[in-house]
Amino acid sequence: MIKSLRKLKTYLLFIFFISFSVFLIPVASFSYDFPDCLKCHKDKVAGKYDHPTECVKCHTYAHITGKKKDFPNYLFAQGVEFCWGCHDKTKFSNKVEHPPVAKGECLSCHNVHTSDAKGLLLAKMPDECFLCHANADFMRKSKHPPVAEGRCMGCHEPHSSKVKKLLLAEMPKECFLCHNKEKYISEKKKKHHSPVATGLCLNCHEPHSSEAQKLLLKATPDVCYMCHDSSDFKNKDNHSPVASGMCMSCHEPHQGDEKKLLLARSPDLCFNCHDKSGFDRKDQHPPVSAGMCTVCHEPHASKDVALLYYPITDGCLMCHPRIAKMPHAAGAMSQVGHPLRDRKDPKSKYGELSCASCHDPHSSDSVNLFRFPAKTAFELCPSCHEYKKPKK
């Protein structure tokens, strides 16, 4: 009798255990009936990365006899609604949506089961993006480092964003995710290039690749002429850096402490190229000693020699008008005063007589800025005029 009761108790416990175990299995899961999907579907996990979920969580009624198929492939939903079963829809529904996301075409970028690329992408980055985007725009001579390294997501959200072009942040904050803001727009600097100050980085630079250095839209000086009138920089006489398109030889492109975004104040800026020894001799022209180079010279281009604003003598008379109102220096019997212009001068750099024929416009070791060694005007004359001593 006791043995019968023990057998009955053991049997009831076995039945309870089996019933309880079956109760614990979710209704939607049939892994008990089909314990290994991979016996038939090995290709679904053949890649390096697999979709991190159980087969039956997506294919909820796989191979169930008599069960009506509401959606293809035994899925519990259809289209993008199927993805929202696990993925948070709000992350994909910002103001700006990637076109495939907006159309619910998740599989145009992702393999739903397995892939050799992270994120179950159809291809590794950046080849994934080039499935739709023409790679010619990203392969030019000068490449943005994130582009060269295939890190598209270093700048862009892949699904949706609150910012145009699916950027991670508004401009110029987007650029400052990598670039040090202090180098481009700092409160410590007094002057800022207008496009930089207003966050218009893309007014000068390509974001992906360019045929010009520094990802510029065009090579200098053409990129500068997109805003600055090129006619102001081209004339009969052109400053060498300007003629060579070397705008950054004199100007900072982003920010600086000097007017016009100059690299340094005048005349120190000029002495980066011009030999200072010709400007700091004993007797100096006041504009030179004051560093006022641009009082006489155009910094970019001019119709007159030496980048002057006016022909040499005309420019001099603007500050020295009395010279034209009275005889200058000595005269001969046939004329009153020394001529100031309109004659040939073989010793002049420019072949024409001017104030600079006798005077150095910058500095001199002689009085009155005389070009040749002399203490008086009469001592200067033999430098040009042949002098014959009278016979005894």
Q: Write down the Rg.
A: 42 Å
Question: What spatial form do the alpha-carbon principal axes imply?
Answer: rod-shaped
Give me the secondary-structure category. alpha+beta
Order of helices and strands: HEHHEHEEHEEHEEHEEHEHEH
Strand order of the largest sheet: 1-3
Q: What is the number of E strands?
A: 12
Q: What is the terminal-to-terminal distance?
A: 171 Å
Number of discrete helical segments: 10
Helix percent band? 10-25%
Mean pLDDT: 88
**Low-confidence parts lasting 5 or more residues at pLDDT below 50?**
16-34
- Biggest sheet descriptor: 2 strands, antiparallel
Percent of residues in beta strands: 5-15%
How would you describe this structure in keywords?
16% helix, 392 residues, alpha+beta, two-stranded antiparallel ribbon, two-stranded antiparallel sheet, 12 strands, 10 helices
Write the layout of secondary structure elements.
Blueprint lengths: L1 H23 L24 E2 L4 H4 L21 H4 L12 E2 L1 H4 L11 E2 L26 E2 L1 H4 L11 E2 L29 E2 L1 H4 L11 E2 L26 E2 L1 H4 L11 E2 L26 E2 L1 H4 L11 E2 L9 H8 L43 E2 L12 H4 L12
Antiparallel strand pairs: 1-3, 2-5, 4-7, 6-9, 8-11, 10-12
Structural write-up:
The protein contains ten helices and twelve strands. It has 392 residues and is an alpha+beta fold. It has a domain at 275-299 and 311-392. It has a two-stranded antiparallel sheet. A two-stranded antiparallel ribbon has the order 2-5. The protein starts with a helix and ends in a 12-residue tail after the last helix. Mean pLDDT is 88; it is low at 16-34.
